[in-house]
Amino acid sequence: MSDEFDVGARLKALRQEAGLSQRQLAERAEVPHGQISMIETGRSSPSVASLRRILGGLGITMSAFFEPDETPRAQVFFRAAELTDLTGHLGDGVAIAQVGDASAHGLQILYETYAPGADTGEAMLAHEANEGGIVVQGEIEVTVGDQRTVLGPGDAYLFDSRAPHRFRNTGTGLARIISACTPPYL
Fold first, then answer.
1. Residue 174 maps to which CATH number?
2. Can you say whether residue 49 is alpha, beta or left, with left for phi > 0 and alpha for psi between -120 and 50 degrees?
3. Smallest Cα–Cα separation from 65: which of 80, 43, 46?
4. Of 31, 77, 111, 134, which shows the fewest CB atoms inside 10 Å?
5. Which residues contact 64 (CB under 8 A, 6 or more apart)?
6. Are residues 117 and 32 in the same domain?
7. What 8-state DSSP symbol labels residue 116?
């Protein structure tokens, strides 16, 4: 994927292709109308949670959003450079890369990186899936429903993704997680 990926232009093109006004998309995605305008004009970078919610209003995944022309391959092994960047330039200190074609396998494997203080957004995530992961570097605060804890290297989590959840780096260095979600969410 090119370093020049324009989140706002891609969102605008998909919205127009779907025949929706900014207001209609905002209503479908249950986000403020102004948020769509700010993203499309490049005046705001959405959080992972916000972008996922907006794309849900269009009925597409983040994977399809960032790699629209990617054709599935029967690839078995993946070098680091071959992972699909699902975050583009969201500007929130979170980088998420996916292994292969998640929809073809019904399993999404992610390599997540959180800068100090970065998180998935103030809005809690919730979706139809199960997910789990292992922290491989740094510290990450995981909130699931009314439970919250800080996990370090070697610590893990596993939960029903319908429970509202959030990830936040509370440490001073990078936090990295290897996670899986089924069925695929992003």
1. 2.60.120.10
2. alpha
3. 46
4. 77
5. none
6. no
7. T
The whole-number average pLDDT for the span 124-141 is: 94
Give the type of residue at 61: T
More confident residue, 21 or 141: 141
Q: What is the pLDDT of residue 2?
A: 41
Q: Which domain holds residue 53?
A: 7-66
For residue 102 the two structure tokens come to 């998640």
Q: Do residue 122 and residue 164 come from a single domain?
A: yes
The alpha-helical segments, DSSP class H, found in the chain are 7-17, 22-29, 33-40, 48-58, 62-66, 102-105
Q: How far apart are the first and last CA of the chain?
A: 17
Dist. CA 163–CA 166, nearest whole Å: 10
- Same domain? For 156 and 105 the reply is yes
10-14 LR contacts (CB < 8 Å, sep 24+): 10/65, 10/68, 11/36, 11/39, 11/40, 11/54, 11/65, 12/40, 14/58, 14/60, 14/65
The mean pLDDT of 154-162, rounded to a whole number, is 96
Residue pair 144/96 in contact by the 8 Å Cβ criterion: no
Only one residue has tokens 């599935």, namely: 72
Residue type, 72: P
pLDDT averaged over the chain?
86
Whether 46 and 110 share a structural domain: no
- Token code pair at residue 16: 């127009």
